[in-house]
Amino acid sequence: MSRTISGTSTVGVTLTSTADNTVSVTGAVNVASGTALYGTGGGLYSWTIDNSGLVSGGGSGHGISLGTTAAPVTNSFVTNESGGTIAGANTGVAIWD
Q1: Among residues 20, 18, 12, 27, which one has the least CA distance to residue 64?
Q2: Number of domains in the chain
Q3: How much is the pTM?
Q4: Containing domain of residue 73, as a range?
């Protein structure tokens, strides 16, 4: 299965199911504070994200954050297509693996 994030969101999106893979962003996730797109970490989680839209985190957040230092992800990939933008006040993409 896969998940497409389209339209516009000012609230961060959290991925919690491996059924979401592959994740395609075609719209805009633009948050004023925090991380725009977060993928849950842990041994079961590996994310593939393809962005052709806008993913932007504000405050001290990331555009895309996959896992944490305590719960890393495995074999995760982020592709930013032509015309896509990934940005964050802290970093654009943070992958803990």
Answers
A1: 12
A2: 1
A3: 0.95
A4: 3-95
